Amino acid sequence: MTNQVDIKEINARIEQESAFVEMIILEMNKVIVGQKHLLDSLLIGLLSNGHILLEGLPGLAKTLAIKTLADTIEAKFSRIQFTPDLLPADLIGTLIYSQKKEEFIVKKGPVFANIILADEINRSPAKVQSALLEAMQERQITIGSETYPLGDPFLVLATQNPIEQEGTYPLPEAQVDRFMLKVVIDYPNMEEEKLIIRENLAAVFPTPNSILKPKDIVKARQTVREVYMDEKIERYILDIVFSTRNPGDYKMEKFTNLIAYGGSPRASINLAFASKAYAFIKRRGYVIPEDVRQVCHDVMRHRIGLTYEAEAENITSEEIISEILDTIEVP
């Protein structure tokens, strides 16, 4: 019975403490038309301290959405355009000799911000991509012999253009795994696009109001951790991840030759974290199976390696995840 009371108490508190979510979405909707899934994903990343890889065609408001989110929470925003000639120092900063002081001084790069937009990340070679690794994982940057902590919150949103593969450097699997979510964005529908045209042709383009400070997000992250997750939900998450490693154990033998490698323990952690953040966004103090299903594709799609057989048969990780969700018993 105590457990029941605890859940009620957590639920009431989270309903109260998550009120700002609707305010953020309201402000962002002034600028962004549609793209509900993108907005939810940005909030999940922000509330669970995870980075996001966005894949979508040009002109789908990826940059605008991220910039709007930064404005809404008064966060310091940096946009870095990745190009083939970019150097790690252009990203993290470097030591510069000051003649006046007769010593080397640190010039910090654009990565010293709260929200980083790494635009077209696959346009830069591996040495630049890996310069982001320490920042993403350790939340710190080393310049010379000194290590500098990064701001909190610190969120990397990297974009990829799926149509141009000429002159691009695909991200290594190890780096892709560091992104909590890989979100695929699609075109708006006709009604939404009509509103987009009107908004862009209006005399004044709408601007969002700042309603939170970065410290409020840091505080909200603690609350997200307190969202109740039942042992049955934990088991459900583990079944989903383990079925990508050993499909035969889950009566999905047909995937044995199609999956080269399955989700790592990072997949399980991120699936649990994203489910809690999704429940928080829905202003609930406990996780239900539907939360796991909602975030599963974004958490898992970049964590399943496909074999040549799968590619030859045009089978995607999306289809595999959908079938896993249809097969595994929902608690």
Between the first and last Cα atoms, what is the distance in angstroms? 21 Å
Please identify the oligomeric state.
single chain
- Principal-axis shape equals globular
Radius of gyration: 21 Å
Helix-strand string: HHHEHEHEEEHEEEHEHHHEHHEHH
Number of helices: 14
Overall average residue pLDDT: 85
Could you state the CATH homologous superfamily of the largest domain?
Answer: P-loop containing nucleotide triphosphate hydrolases
Question: What is the β-strand count?
Answer: 11
Beta-strand percentage range: 15-25%
**Biggest pleated-sheet summary:** 5 strands, parallel
The top-level CATH class of the largest domain is: Alpha Beta
What level of helicity do the residues show? 40-55%
Total domain units? 2
Identify low-pLDDT runs.
none
- CATH topology name of the largest domain, in short, is Rossmann fold
- Spatial strand arrangement across the major sheet: 2-5-8-1-9
CATH architecture of the largest domain: 3-Layer(aba) Sandwich
Category by helix and strand content = alpha/beta
